[in-house]
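Residues and backbone
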Amino acid sequence: MTKSPKPRAKRPSEKSRPSAKANEEKVREAILTAAIAEFVEHGLGGARVDAIARRAKTNKRYLYVYVGNKEAIWLAALLRVYEIMRAGERELKLEKLAPDEGMRQLIRFNFRFHVEHPEFIAMLNDENRQKGRNLRRSTKAQKMYSPLLALIEGLLRRGEEAGLFRGGVDPMQLYISIAALSYFYCSNQYTLSAIFGQDLGGRPEMLRREEHVVSMIMGYLAHPSEN
């Protein structure tokens, strides 16, 4: 009696086989998430590659394969926090909003991002102590912010045409002012709280500060006839 042939095992389809690229991205994402936590806690100088690998639950070899040495990991992690901020700004869809409403949304988002992302402040502080030497090695940050400046320029132009905003406002200088009013308060909240004897990091004071920042920027932008 002849034996019937055994059914051949089905080969996994392309969809069922995990892509090597997808796996690489997953590992790289875990590395960057772990790196941000390590750098925030210990700074670039004190962070250790071994510690990043442990946090990421991966072999140290993959850090060098997928990202690079510690300086390369720092730069990739720093760019990631910038990317997170820019992704949030893109979600505002400023080009679809009235100019005054779009500007208010941008100011509020910027302030809240600084409040909710202390890792952003910590890493910027560290990079500034290094005079931005790591960030200058990449053009990615510049490419991230060029579209944002174009959107701000569009808001300013539409606001001026509608008689809402003054003319001659530099989009870059405006964005720096928006960021400065948020960054300084959040990065110095502990010393400011000690100086003024108030909990400036508490929710009521944070909300009060947010309204103050919005009022300052919008007051500056207002067309003279609107004041």
